[in-house]
Amino acid sequence: xxxxxxxxxxARARSTSWGIALCTMFIVASFSVAGGLETSxxxxxxNFSSDYSLITKSDTNGPAYFSATELVEVKNxxxxxxxxxxxxxxxxxxxTVFTIMDNNVNLPDAxxxxxxxxxxxxxxxxxxxxTLVGNRTVNATATTHYSSTTFPSTWIYASLYLMNSLTGEMxxxxxxxxxxxxxxxxxxxxxxxxxxxxLIGIVQFLDNGVKEIESDASWVLVPSAFVIAVLAYSFIGxxxxxxxxxxxxxxxxxxxxxxxxxxxxxxxxxxxxxxxLIGVALGIVMSYAVSTAASAMxxxxxxxxxxxxxxxxxxxxxxxxxxxxxxIPAARMTFTSPVSDLKEVTSFS
Amino acid sequence: MVIALSIMIFTxxxxxxxxxxxxxxxxxxxxxxxxxxxxxxxxxxxQVDANMVSALESVPNITxxxxxxxxxxxxxxxSFVVRGVILEKLNKTGPSFKKFDLKPYGAVPSSTKAYxxxxxxxxxxxxxxxxxxxxGSYSVRLELLNVVGEFETGTSLDDEMLVSLxxxxxxxxxxxxxxxxxxxxxxEPEWLSDxxxxxxxxxxxxxxxxxxxxxxxxxxxxVSVGVRNWGSVSGETVVKxxxxxDELITRVTLKPSQTDRLYINYSSTELGLHTIEAVISGNxxxxxxxxxxIVHPYLQLAVQSMIxxxxxxxxxxxxxxxxxxxxxxxxxGSTTNTTDVDGNVTFxxxxxxxxxxxxxxxxxxxxxxxxxxxxxxxxPASFQPMITSFSLSPSSVKQSEYATGxxxxxxxxxxxxxxxxxxxxxxxxxxxxxxxxEGLESxxxxxxxxxxAVGTHAVRVGTFSRELVVQSWISDNPDLVQLVxxxxxxxxxxxxxxxxxxxxxxxSEGNIAVALLAIGAISALLAALAITAxxxxxxxxxxxRLGVLKTIGAPRSAIRKLxxxxxxxxxxAGAGIGIALGVVIADSISKSNLLVLFGHRxxxxxxxxxxxxxxxxxMIISVGTALASAMMAVRETAITSIKKLExxxxxxxxxxxxxxxx
Lengths: 349, 662
Fold this sequence. Notes:
The structure holds 2 protein chains of 2 kinds.
Chain A: H1 11-45, E1 52-59, E2 62-63, E3 66-67, E4 78-88, E5 93-101, E6 117-121, E7 128-133, E8 137-146, E9 155-157, H2 160-167, E10 172-173, E11 175-179, H3 183-191, E12 194-198, H4 201-217, H5 221-242, H6 244-252, H7 257-297, H8 308-335, H9 338-344
Parallel strand pairs in A: 5-9, 6-8
Antiparallel strand pairs in A: 1-2, 1-11, 1-12, 3-10, 4-5, 4-7, 4-11, 6-9, 7-8
Helix pairs in contact in A: 1-4, 1-5, 1-7, 1-8, 5-7, 5-8, 6-9, 7-8
Chain B: H1 2-21, E1 33-37, E2 48-49, H2 52-57, E3 62-75, E4 78-85, H3 87-93, E5 99-102, E6 113-117, H4 118-124, E7 130-135, E8 142-152, E9 161-164, H5 165-172, E10 178-179, E11 181-186, H6 189-196, E12 203-209, E13 214-216, E14 221-229, E15 235-243, E16 246-254, E17 259-266, E18 272-280, E19 286-295, E20 299-302, E21 306-308, E22 311-319, E23 329-332, E24 335-338, E25 344-349, E26 353-360, E27 367-374, E28 385-393, E29 396-398, E30 403-411, E31 417-425, E32 428-437, E33 442-449, E34 455-461, E35 464-471, H7 480-488, E36 491-495, H8 509-541, H9 543-551, H10 556-591, E37 596-597, E38 600-601, H11 608-635, H12 638-642, H13 646-649, H14 655-661
Parallel strand pairs in B: 4-9, 6-8, 13-19, 21-27, 29-35
Antiparallel strand pairs in B: 1-11, 1-36, 2-10, 3-4, 3-11, 5-8, 6-9, 7-8, 12-14, 14-17, 15-16, 15-18, 18-19, 20-22, 22-25, 23-24, 23-26, 26-27, 28-30, 30-33, 31-32, 31-34, 34-35, 37-38
Helix pairs in contact in B: 1-8, 1-10, 8-11, 10-11
């Protein structure tokens, strides 16, 4: 099948391509701003390191108990623990009692005790024989204080033996701290209903912040794609108006509707592709120019950064919007009868 | 339709951009004023003195001051801001609660109660009450929150979780006495704005500083004070130092926002407490004062109180400034030696018993310490640590200064080991220090106590208890600006809309403004492009009619006027519909959770300024596109309008070729 000689890279096509290029440039520049923010955020995140992750499982009112076998694939890098909110009978204080079996993780300043002895946080003035009332009631001895940067100074550290007695949950835990959890391990746990949090909150907060910015930036596709579609619509609309007579002849000679539609859309695809390529190139140049100029004008480090994936998305969005915009006039032209096409406009050529 | 859609997109884009521009105000709960530390590299690192709150509350026209600490956390993949507050103060400062529902819950530790904003509760999808393990912001920490209530304010607070100041302090490792920001509400916003943007030169004194609270007789010390012009123009002021009845006048000229520090030397030949004042007069008078105690020079002797027989006994002699003193005669038992340049001297402990070591030098008060020489064989073969003395100096400090504690621990056994020394402050634990001791070893352990609240504190180590007085920096009737400068150090007062959250990415607000303005301008350009393209198509389709008009003698100006008026009319009509639709869509985006920034939902702030901006933009686009259309219409000649030219038609359709092909 030969190509029908319908496409002309006329002045109109050139100006439409430049318009589309402008839109694509806008998309690339906006993505670059988001990319720059991401880089800045990642640099900020790099100031914090989080080897540790908190693993919990929730029921309707808070952390639920789980057995160590449920974390079998990360067992060797995990410390299992329990916490329980109880009342100290003697003082009426509500406190959190906890224990952690730190055999594999080596948490910084993790406390240790045994039997019915408990260690109290520095903010608590509890000493001697005490009674802890939780799900069950147990007697304990507050021997001394513990000092920890990880756990609050308002908690009480107990042995696993005492926590088992207090909670009645044998061989089960309601939190775990893992060291060096990989992304796939974390995903696997999340899929099984566990909540996995970096034990330094700012890491995940900034990480999510970057994702929010990226998600927000994707909205820029809407206005740009709309304008690209309008440009393609106007271009194909004008082209079909000008060349209706020619198209009528082609239909008379046996060109099918599908074939005419395909060639008109191909027409739109070509100008969209041409405009998209120019736009991507201009977008990259503009991003680096603005980045350099802004960094020189202001003392801060502000970068616009483009990524290959975003460039591909920008280009594909341009093509899609161009074809979609051209669809209405192209379809309209396709479905007119050859007779009306030949009658409507008399070719002067 | 194209025009309406284009303007709608332009309106929505502008609204969203302005919303993004004002996103930082979310951290200031969208209203009032906020005091934060401008010297902090990021908003996350902002720290201001919490004691300013009580001082602010005493300033007339200030109706509320809420100290707040920002912690950042996440749960179930949702990131959010955990704001440490004192609920009563937050309630007084605003924003007001439209809803505050407490759910029935059992007994929980009061400091761990948390309240979740209505929008955040939607995002988290939890049922109240809920016990939530929460992690530290910047270091490995863990806390258990009891989320017992839900609130709604209609502001960005609804995207956050409120916890006690203590919990947020623990999660962020914020020192006691510091908070991230202080939000301030006022009954007189205009007054506050005027205070913040004065029309003339205005001066404030801050941080009257003496390096030592205790100075030896005749010893020179430096006294300095900060002076800042917080007005909008340059000016000169007179700073007066008053000490022992004498006045020293210093003139200083400062540009707007410029800060300088003035120094004087001070010495006295009279023992006792001396008060030094720094004063400026005028419409905003300030008087700051500090005390210096003049003491007789004295020696200090550092030596262990117990030592094994036939060991070498080292001593160090320092003066009242803790500087080593050379040439001091030290007598121990019957032997007298002289200190070297480092203040050190050594003896041989060759006799059992308790002996006094005496350090003497002309012009100084002697130092005396008892040392016991013991036979190690008579001590138990175990680790026997004990605290033998505890001192704290100075016993009175200003806020932001620190006191140093010295604890002497001894091992009365012959086996070494390590020992935890717990320092208690007002019956609560303050610090645990681990000391390792060899057999019969004695050690001096030092620690610093800082950022304590104003008042008298009891500090206890072992069986020893000492009193520490922390004095306030505040002078009488402090001015707001003085407070900000004095307490925040480099603290700054911002309106709610200008908290520099973008510092989070180390990006200046100027850059963001440029970027957002550029996006807005390009958005307008794209809207204009779309409308022009639509008009171009219409004109193209009507070119024959225009050609006929030209042929029958219509001048270019008439054609231009005709096309312009029609295009402008259509533009305006489309713009009206587009603006209305754009506002509705922007509002819908605002009400949905589609756009989120740093844990806060994007909020549309459709004020008069923004509406005028959008209307102006739409008008420019309408006029511009109408003009462009008119120019397109008159560009062609009558002939080209009616008859297509060869060059426009391009390649002729070769019918024979097509037939041959098929």
